[in-house]
Please model this.
Amino acid sequence: MKYSQLIGMIAALGLVGVCFLPWTELVAHHIEYNGFHAQMNDNLTVGNQWIPHSFFAFLCCLFFILNSVGAKRANILVAFINLGWAIKNFILFSLCRQTEQGECPQIRSGLILLLVLSVIIQVMTFLPNMNINYDDE
Model:
């Protein structure tokens, strides 16, 4: 695909931007969670999720730019790790907690975009734009 590397880089940069959007919201407590503010309660802190996503997005952009077979193969691995991290975040943030009210968080657009952009990055790693030279002797 002609523009797969550019689409993958734009999706990787968009993935970092999605960390600013709200991922989930606890309506009863009026608390929104995103990739920067991710403390569920006093016992459960999931940390700053923007750090691993930014790291993986930077590596994906770097491997999208490099034009070697090894970089394209490494990009597939890094994108798989990023997709796994996004799936983990989706499960962790959308999970219903055992509280006194038994409340489930309301899923916001940022969490859905996190998964969608991670899948787009993964698909674009399978479509590298490389010229292959065949030596026919």
About this structure: The CA atoms of residues 23 and 109 lie 6 Å apart. Residues 4-29+46-125 form one domain.
